[in-house]
Amino acid sequence: MLQEIREEVIGVVQAVLPIILIIVILEVGVLRAAPSDLLLFLLGSGMVVLGIALFLSGVKAGLLPIGDAIGSELPARGSLALVIGGTFFFGLLTTIAEPNIRILAGMLDTASGGGIPSGSLILVIAVSVGFIVTIGVLRIIFGFPLAYLFAAGYGIVLLLAPFTPLDLLAVAVDAGGVTTGLLVIPVILALGTGVSSVLAGRSALTDGFGLVGLAALGPVIGVMLVGVIYL
Fold it and tell me: InterPro entries of this UniProt entry (predicted)?
C-alpha cells in the first residue's frame, strides 16, 4: 500500500509541478509576493499533492472494486426493478458526495446572494445524474445504441435553451462540467464496466463506457428543466 501511495505521489508531482513553477515565477517576478505568501502557497501545494495522491490510492483500493462489484451484481440478481433502483441511488449518492459540485453550489449561493440555494442545486444535479446513469445502464442491458441517447439528450438541450433563463443556462452548462469530477468518474466507470462484464454478448470496452458522458449531460438538462418550469 505504501508503495502505491509513493507511486501516486510521484505521478501527481509530475502533473502539478509545471503549474506550481509557473505560479511561483509569477508571484516572485510579477506580483512581488511577500515571502510569507509564497511559503503559504508552497505549503498548500504540498497538501494538494498529498491529498490527491491519497485520494487516487483510495479510489484504486476501494471505490473502483466496489463500483465494479455493484455493477456486476445488480444484473445477476435478475430483477429489473433492483437494477433501476440500485443504479439510481448509487448515482445520486455518489454525486452528492462529489466535491466539485459542492464548490460550484457554494460559489453560486454566494454570487446570487442566496438566490440559488446550494442544497437545492446539489439535489437537482444529483437526481439528474442518478436518472440518466440509470438510463445508461438500461442501454447496456437492452443493447440499444449509445448514439441514440446522446442525440435525444442534446436535442432536449437545444429545445430547452431558448426558454431557459440566461443565468440558469450558464449554471446548467457548468453543472454538467463539474459533475464528472474525481469521485463520480471512477465510480460511474466501474459501474458501467461491471454491468457489461456479466451480460452475455456485451463488451466492457464498447458497452461499458459512455456513462460518464451521460452523467455530464444529465445535470445540464435537469437544471434547464428547473429553470423552464419554476422560473
Answer: UmpAB
